[in-house]
Amino acid sequence: MFKNVIAPIQAWLMSQGKCVGCGMLLNKAKRKSHKYGEKVTCKCERIYIFNLKDKKYRRALLDEV
Fold first, then answer.
1. Contact 45, 59 (CB under 8 A)
2. pLDDT digit string, tens, across residues 18-63
3. Which residues contact 31 (CB under 8 A, 6 or more apart)?
4. Where along the chain do its domains lie?
5. In a 3-state reduction of DSSP, which class is residue 44?
6. Does an H or E element contain 48, and which?
7. Residues 6+ away with beta carbon under 8 Å from 54
8. pLDDT tens across 1-16, in order?
9. What angle do CA 54, 22, 1 make, to 5 degrees?
10. pLDDT tens digits, residue range 30-42?
11. Burial level of 29, CB count in 10 A (0-12/13-18/19+)?
12. pTM of the prediction?
């Protein structure tokens, strides 16, 4: 049940380009080239993948870290 409440909030934050943990703008985070786009590491150590074609962020999967 808790996940059903948190998931829409996290999706909204990522659509705004913000980290779901600390709220920092992800365009200020460290970026590194990756085969799926850009690997973005926030200051709170959460890792995201930025799709260059769609211009959207998503949380990185374990095999992408």
1. no
2. 999 999 999 999 999 999 999 999 999 999 999 999 999 999 999 9
3. 38, 39, 40, 41, 50
4. 2-64
5. coil
6. strand 47-51
7. none
8. 888 999 999 999 999 9
9. 80
10. 999 999 999 999 9
11. buried
12. 0.89
The sign of the torsion formed by the CA atoms of 12, 59, 43, 34 equals negative
Starting from the edge strand earliest in sequence, which strands make up the sheet with 37-41, in order? Answer: 30-34, 37-41, 47-51, 56-59
**Secondary structure (3-state) at 17:** coil
- Which amino acid appears at position 60 of this protein? A
Q: Could you tell me the end-to-end alpha-carbon distance of the chain, in angstroms, rounded to an integer?
A: 28
Torsion, Cα of 33, 34, 36, 37 (10° steps)? -10
